[in-house]
Design a protein that fits this description.
With 241 residues, the chain is an alpha/beta fold. The protein has one domain: Rossmann fold, CATH 3.40.50.150. It contains 9 helices and 7 strands, in the order H-H-H-E-H-E-H-E-E-H-E-H-H-H-E-E. A 7-stranded mixed beta sheet has the order 3-2-1-4-5-7-6, sandwiched between helices. Strand 2, helix 5 and strand 3 form a beta-alpha-beta unit. The protein starts with 5 loop residues before the first helix and ends with a strand.
Length: 241
């Protein structure tokens, strides 16, 4: 697709030292909301009882495992971080889900799968780390069969001015030192990065532009739910037949 790998490499380096405590700290630093957002995502992905699901940016396989426990689907999870995948594979094995979940190294912008091979696709915290979000959405949709469902989750900027101000204060002044206290310097670096990164992303890719990208990728009936006063957003849609 000709997409630069620079954004991928940045994400790999940023999160390289996080895996051992990633899931615990993600919950603590999001006030437990990450779990709620994932549950909303999973609900839409498995609604049609898919047989084959692609989980993009699977990380330590939290979403993949949740989908496996709530459906009979075979799940292919991909991520750009081998460190995350190693932990994910161990968790999958310990949960006895290794016959239904397969985790591999791959990029969202260049998927090693055939056209229309999946009944459903999930992706989490992906579009802020790719060079061209619209092209990435198109590539994801390429591997989805007509009539299949795709759903994505990411952080968001609260639309309400009061909550947006509180969010800005939290992400700039509270999150970095809290992350440092709980997880050390690696988490401090992520905490310092997240707020400005989220703001910049939605400055370039506001909701209307993201919706246009989904439409351009052949997705219809696209809906979204703003979660936790605007801290997160889940979007989902169906591939045009």
């Amino acid at each position: 697709m000709g997409v630069s790998r620079a954004e991928n490499e940045f994400a790999v380096q940023l999160f390289r030292r996080l895996p051992p405590r990633y899931d615990l700290l993600a919950e603590v630093l999001s006030f437990g909301q990450n779990r709620r957002w994932r549950a909303e995502l999973v609900k839409h992905v498995i609604a049609g009882n898919p047989a084959r699901v692609l989980d993009v940016a699977t990380g330590t396989a939290g979403v993949a495992m949740a989908m496996a426990r709530q459906s009979n689907a075979h799940i292919s999870g991909i991520d750009v971080s081998e460190d995350m995948l190693e932990i994910g594979r161990r968790r999958v094995l310990e949960a006895g889900l290794d016959e239904r979940i397969e985790l591999d190294l791959a990029r969202a912008e260049e998927l090693p799968f055939a056209d229309g091979g999946f009944d459903a696709i999930s992706f989490t915290y992906v579009l802020r780390y790719v060079g061209d979000p619209a092209a990435t959405i198109t590539e994801l949709a390429r591997t989805l069969r007509p009539g299949g469902v795709m759903a994505g989750l990411d952080f968001y900027v609260p639309p309400n001015a009061v909550w947006r101000a509180a969010w800005w204060l939290y992400t700039r002044a509270v999150l970095p030192p809290a992350a440092m206290l709980l997880g050390g310097r690696a988490w401090w670096e992520v905490g310092r990065f997240l707020g400005p990164n989220i703001s910049a992303h939605y400055g370039r890719w506001p909701l209307r532009r993201l919706l246009a990208a989904w439409d351009g990728a052949g997705m219809i009936d696209v809906e979204w739910r703003v979660m936790s006063l605007g801290g997160g957003i889940v979007m989902w849609g169906t591939k045009r037949a």
